[in-house]
Design a protein that fits this description.
By secondary structure, the chain is mainly alpha-helical. Helix content is 69%, strand content 0%. The longest helix has 46 residues.
């Protein structure tokens, strides 16, 4: 006789709370992460263009495909962590700048 009227209401409320917390987490953290990916992608595209490279040239230098470069630049995918140092060296930026999606003022060499 565990599931009484009162226990059923408590159980329904607990399920609602778990759903609400999960949904809130998605809205706050996952959507924010997507926006950051777009910012990083735009930054990578700006760096590539400022250095006069095509997506094909960047792909060749990094040993990947131009489609992958395109996906990074649109924010659909992120570069693998093992490539961040190579990308930073190629564009003469700090890895933290790539992760932040913007140049730091003290490192700025006007693009």
């Amino acid at each position: 006789e565990f599931v009484t009227g009162q226990n059923c209401r408590i159980l329904k409320f607990a399920v609602f709370v778990v759903f609400f917390i999960t949904f809130f987490h998605y809205i706050v953290f996952e959507r924010r992460k997507q926006m950051d990916q777009k910012k990083i992608g735009n930054f990578l595209k700006d760096l590539r263009k400022a250095n006069g490279f095509t997506q094909e040239q960047v792909a060749e230098k990094l040993g990947t495909s131009s489609r992958t470069i395109s996906r990074w630049e649109t924010g659909a995918y992120m570069p693998d962590i093992s490539l961040l140092v190579a990308i930073a060296e190629m564009y003469d930026v700090d890895v933290r700048e790539i992760i932040d999606g913007e140049r730091k003022e003290e490192n700025m060499n006007f693009l």
